[in-house]
Amino acid sequence: MLVKDLGHVAYEPTCQAMQAFTQARVAETEDELWLLEHEAVFSQGTNGDAEHILQTSSIPVIQSDRGGQVTYHGPGQLIAYTLFDLKRRHIGVRDMVHRLEQTVIDVLSLYAISSYADPDAPGVYVDGAKIASLGLRVKRGACYHGISLNVDMDLSPFSLINPCGYQGMKMVDMKTLNSMATMDKVKEQFVDCLSAQMS
């Protein structure tokens, strides 16, 4: 897979770029992994219910074509967008979700952070608090969108929503868990752990 570090980017143009890439790809198109941070934004999934946005703020709410409910993206959160041909890899959607969750679990274990996935609520959790959120879209056998990992961010905007549609869901980041993680290092480790999961 081709790894692209896009730095800090706005949400909408990035989603449009993913859609265009997926639409244009052919059987031989190389899979891509986009690593980035978004400017502050709430993204609302295709089945998103407006009642999960508890309070309006200066942070924009943008409709997304991924699955799931509303979540928050902002600086200090690693976003990994997986533009993968699942059909070519003979991977189902559930399997892809599992591999992404396991990638994050493997990264966190490098910092002695014990985490787990919940089969009933996609994502990765530490002692009941969510540290990584996940949402995919599949078109023509290829997926896009991906997973977000809270590294070192302002978590307060999560209080304005029911994260991923769960009332009272506590959110946490790696910094709060006393890890010495840096974004650059976590990106590097994420690539290594995902490569192992996809091999």
Main sheet?
A: 7 strands, mixed
Mean pLDDT: 95
CATH first level: Alpha Beta
Helix-strand sequence: EHEEEEEHHEEEEH
State Rg: 16 Å
Strand order, sheet with most strands: 1-2-6-10-9-8-7
For the record, the CATH architecture stands as 2-Layer Sandwich
- Helical content stands at 25-40%
Distance between the termini: 11 Å
How many H/I helical runs? Answer: 4
- What is the fold-level CATH name, i.e. the topology? BirA Bifunctional Protein, domain 2
- Overall structural class, as computed from helix and strand content, comes to alpha+beta
Describe the structure.
The protein is an alpha+beta fold. It has one domain (2-198): BirA Bifunctional Protein, domain 2 (2-Layer Sandwich), CATH 3.30.930. Helix content is 26%, strand content 32%. The protein is built from 4 helices and 10 strands. It has helices spanning 11-24, 86-89, 93-109, 183-198; strands spanning 2-9, 32-38, 41-44, 61-63, 70-73, 77-85, 116-118, 121-126, 129-139, 142-150. A 7-stranded mixed beta sheet has the order 1-2-6-10-9-8-7, with helices on both faces. A hairpin with a 2-residue loop joins strand 9 (129-139) and strand 10. Helix 3 packs across helix 4 (183-198). The longest helix is centred in the middle third of the chain and has 17 residues, at 93-109. The protein is globular and about 45 Å long. The model has no long low-confidence stretch (mean pLDDT 95).
